[in-house]
Amino acid sequence: MSRRVAHALDRLGREDLDAASVAVALKRWKWACHAPAARLQGEHNDLTEFVAPFARDDLERALRALPRHLARELRSQVAPLDELYIAKTVPVPTWTNGNWWENRR
């Protein structure tokens, strides 16, 4: 994450969206997205049921809170990870609501 994005996050004044919290979320999202597909596709899997969705939720909140040009900068780091996650997971057919990353195993 760039210094500009980190500074903008800290200036939001939200404890849940400070630069450190978003950096941790980005690290966890990277970790989940780079995990082997076999690890991501198992049932009752903490990685796809808790770690990845919570990290991606935090990133989405940051993307929505940042000014457009800074969100674009952060999104350039998140989007390739999203593609990796989509490529390694499958949609849950019975899931009908929520964010796309919550609907994948």
UniProtKB/TrEMBL annotation:
This is Uncharacterized protein. It comes from Actinopolyspora alba. The lineage of its organism: Bacteria, Bacillati, Actinomycetota, Actinomycetes, Actinopolysporales.
